[in-house]
Amino acid sequence: MMVEITINGKKVQVEEGTTILEAARANGVAIPTLCYHELLEPYGACRLCLVEVVKNGYRTLTTSCNYPITVPIEVETDTEKVRSSRKMVLELLLSRCDTSPKLNQLAAEYGIEKSPFELHYDDCILCGLCERVCREIVGANAITFAQRGTDRVVVPPFGEEAEACIGCGACAYVCPTNAIQIQENGEEKIIDRWSRVLKLRTCKECGMEFAPDFQLRFIQKKYDLPEDFFDLCRDCRAMKK
Q1: How many other CB atoms sit within 10 Å of the CB of residue 59?
Q2: Where are the domains of the chain?
């Protein structure tokens, strides 16, 4: 079923259940986000995707990433109230992480040079992307949210080494502030933030270390692959075909 809505004065038809963010982007309207990824369930944590919705004569400020469209509405994405709210969000985020290139780029778009709030540095902005990709896509459930309020953090269970972490790097890939760093040191892959050290498997053909052994065993078991499926690295496997 299609629903007619108005975005910034333009009438468009969208499939019922489409979110405002999806509808806006599909029609060339840019809305900033930090906690959104199209492969993950919307979370609404960063609040940057705020828009104004006019419904039944009432005007409401709401997050667009998790607002499903079910009836005709008017959406305004660049009002003074929207820009003021996004600016406040960015100022608060900058007071937590003023070294992030992505945050500073967004701040500059809203005329912010420096946060007016006291800096309490933490390169994690609690967007939840790392936790959600680990749980929803990878299925490892290696990290989670803990504590509440200003003490809220993303950590492995009990704040210890992330024993379920397979070292896939998905968390680092989706992190908007580069808070999660991965390095390879000889025969090991290291994710400092989760205190995770994983031994790399050696290719039986060329002798190169190519992926965490724990990760390969996780994938082999998950998809019921042969025991020797990952004996070779990608290049050597391609040469065998």
Answers
A1: 12
A2: 2-81, 129-240
- Of the candidates 108, 100, 235, 234, the one whose C-alpha atom is nearest the C-alpha of residue 175 is 100
Sequence-ordered strand ranges (E) for 42-161:
50-55, 58-63, 74-76, 144-146, 153-155
Phi-psi region of 53 (alpha: psi -120 to 50; beta: other; left: phi over 0): beta
Q: Report the C-alpha gap between 34 and 121 in whole angstroms.
A: 18
Q: Compute the half-sphere exposure of residue 10: CA atoms within 13 Å on the CB side of its CA.
A: 12
Residue for token pair 């959104």: 36
CATH number of 2-81: 3.10.20.740
What is the reported pTM? 0.90
Q: What is the CA radius of gyration of the chain?
A: 22
* 5-40 residue pLDDT tens: 999 999 999 999 999 999 999 999 999 999 999 999
Q: Which helix (H) or strand (E) holds 101?
A: helix 101-109
Taking only the tens place, the pLDDT of each residue in 157-186 is 888 889 999 999 999 999 999 999 999 888
**Residue holding tokens 């003023």?**
98
Look up residue 196 and give its amino acid.
R
CB-based contacts of 151, cutoff 8 Å, min separation 6: none
